[in-house]
Amino acid sequence: MKGNDDSAQHLKIAEFLIENIRNGEYKENEKIPSEHKLCHLFQVNRHVVRQAIARITNQGWVTPVQGKGCYINRIPKPIQYVLSSQTRFSEIMDSQGVQHESRLLHWEKGLSSLAERSNLQIHEDETIYRLEILRYVDDKPISITTTVIPEIEVPNLEHHFDGFSSLYGLLEKQYHFRPIRSRSVFQGCLPVWKDAEILEMPENIPIIQMENLMNHPSGSPVEYSVSRMRSDMHKCLIVY
Amino acid sequence: MKGNDDSAQHLKIAEFLIENIRNGEYKENEKIPSEHKLCHLFQVNRHVVRQAIARITNQGWVTPVQGKGCYINRIPKPIQYVLSSQTRFSEIMDSQGVQHESRLLHWEKGLSSLAERSNLQIHEDETIYRLEILRYVDDKPISITTTVIPEIEVPNLEHHFDGFSSLYGLLEKQYHFRPIRSRSVFQGCLPVWKDAEILEMPENIPIIQMENLMNHPSGSPVEYSVSRMRSDMHKCLIVY
């Protein structure tokens, strides 16, 4: 590996700083070492150290304060999202003692897209409900989910939207079933404009996109959803 | 949602173009519609269209050719990585008819880190092998894995590195066991300098980091690994 040219030097310093912020060696609201100290430590000139600091500033790790130094930003502690057949957002959050909320951003009743109906195994002319749900942890938006359920499984769903707080709570209370996770596909990507706007996040933090197919306890597909989650706020755990 | 100011307009056009490249409406090696056509289609001025094109050029979707137009780049087709207790890279690739290779980049024998020994449930003074394995699909590097196995499970492991092609192949042939996946934790993040260099990838494509704990068929932890995978080359599937 290359390593001694200037361009690699500033990347190494940036990673050294990030590593120390991540592992708690440098603490939130405190300052990283001064330019002077970093020059000495890495035996480089001020220009290289400044490049490293510009990089970690852009990435959201620190905030430089004129004449004072570089303060370490609050790093979101990711929530642990356990992926199992019974996963339910509100229960995962409760078990971790995390303050959470789900808001119904938008809903519509209509026809399905090709991907939706092939996943749900329904006909082209069957009506579906499509809901957009925004999830918050500690009052910060962390994920946006579009979920589709055939109307026949949840007739008059819109009658129960008042005071919406959890889709699965609503399904259990009003329709007496709880979907069971059958398949998930996940990918990493960068946020699109809509994600960044809704999730109030910088565009350079990746998104985990998770596509889920849920079954009715009787065995047939009942819900198809696509969640886009801030990757810095989620850690997904699979137990086999 | 906002939507009519200029800054949002160019983002919308960029997403429209990306969507059409993704869904195959615009094809590899062909051109996207001309600036003129896009201006007309979105009722915006040339400046806004150019901003949109600059954006998707930076993101690696297209290559502008002076005086000719904007050609659509080859989009890597992600491999499907099935996560189950029996997952094995080479078998997944074989089943998808994909040309693949694993190379042993580096190995060492020594003591474990705190994370390694707490996952493997071994003592501080137990020796481990630590391997760095680079995986290729169609001759392109797609992931880098650091894997740790206690020496006691694989005595003289280094005697079998000649002609290395698959770790699990080696374990089965020489040590007569096959690790069973017991737990995975995944997160999305941006590549660090080393990832970008080893995986020969742009720094703005996210990485999926997956931490795996594998058991010996007899039940005790035998392998702890951390893989960093190009997110545009992997689609992970979990079946419950």
TrEMBL record, chains A, B:
Q: Which Gene Ontology terms cover its molecular function?
A: DNA binding; DNA-binding transcription factor activity
The lineage, from the top, is:
Bacteria, Bacillati, Bacillota, Bacilli, Bacillales
Q: Which SMART domains match?
A: HTH_GNTR, UTRA
Q: Which InterPro entries match?
A: Bact_HTH_transcr_reg (IPR050679), Chorismate_lyase_/UTRA_dom_sf (IPR028978), Tscrpt_reg_HTH_GntR (IPR000524), UTRA (IPR011663), WH-like_DNA-bd_sf (IPR036388), WH_DNA-bd_sf (IPR036390)
GO annotation (BP), single: negative regulation of DNA-templated transcription
Record's keyword annotation contains Magnesium: no
Record CDD domains:
WHTH_GntR
Keywords of this entry: DNA-binding, Transcription, Transcription regulation
Q: What protein name does the entry list?
A: HTH gntR-type domain-containing protein
Q: Does the keyword Ribonucleoprotein apply?
A: no
Tell me which residues make up the HTH gntR-type domain: 7-75
